Amino acid sequence: QVQLVESGGGSVQAGGSLRLACAASGNTYDTDCMGWYRQAPGKEREGVALLFTNYDDIQSYADSVKGRFTISLDSAKKTLTLQMNSLKPEDTTMYYCAAGRDRERCSASRREIIAGIGSRTPLNYWGQGTQVTVST
């Protein structure tokens, strides 16, 4: 089992920045990928960014955040971060950290993020979420 705890959400004005963090504990050596997802009430979950834990230079982003958000992994600290710059009101929602155990599931989620079709392949482990609110 892997436990994930997000932090760093909050309120910011449009154009501002926030940095989300996800602390992982438990059998973290068992993970193949980690990512950030977001979901507004009544809407489909959207993959935001994902990386493979053993190849963290391979990063995938949704078109809606490309160039503004950066995902990174500190393996020693077992912490996944999402640096969010140039925030827009449409970025307002709950953000979730997730981790996947197997390559097939991770690769499917990566394809969905790149295609922008919504997150239909859930990863194995999820955090409780952190709220991001961007005002005009």
Structural summary, described in words:
The chain is built from 1 helix and 11 strands; from the N terminus they run βββββββββαββ. The chain is mainly beta. Strands 2, 4, 5, 6, 9, 10 and 11 form a 7-stranded mixed sheet that branches. Strands 1-3-8-7 form a 4-stranded antiparallel sheet, with no helix packed on it. Strand 7 (69-74) and strand 8 (79-84) form a beta hairpin.
Secondary-structure blueprint of this entry?
Layout: E1 2-7, E2 10-13, E3 18-26, E4 33-39, E5 46-52, E6 55-61, E7 69-74, E8 79-84, E9 93-100, H1 103-115, E10 125-126, E11 130-135
Parallel strand pairs: 2-11
Antiparallel strand pairs: 1-3, 3-8, 4-5, 4-9, 5-6, 7-8, 9-10, 9-11
Oligomer: single chain
SS elements, strand count = 11
Cα-based radius of gyration, to the nearest Å: 14 Å
Task: Outline the low-pLDDT stretches.
Answer: none
The major beta sheet can be summarized as:
7 strands, mixed
Helix fraction, binned, reads under 10%
Structural class: mainly beta
Element order, helices and strands?
EEEEEEEEEHEE
Q: How widely separated are the two ends?
A: 40 Å
Strand content: over 45%
Shape: globular
Mean pLDDT: 94
Compute the number of helices.
1
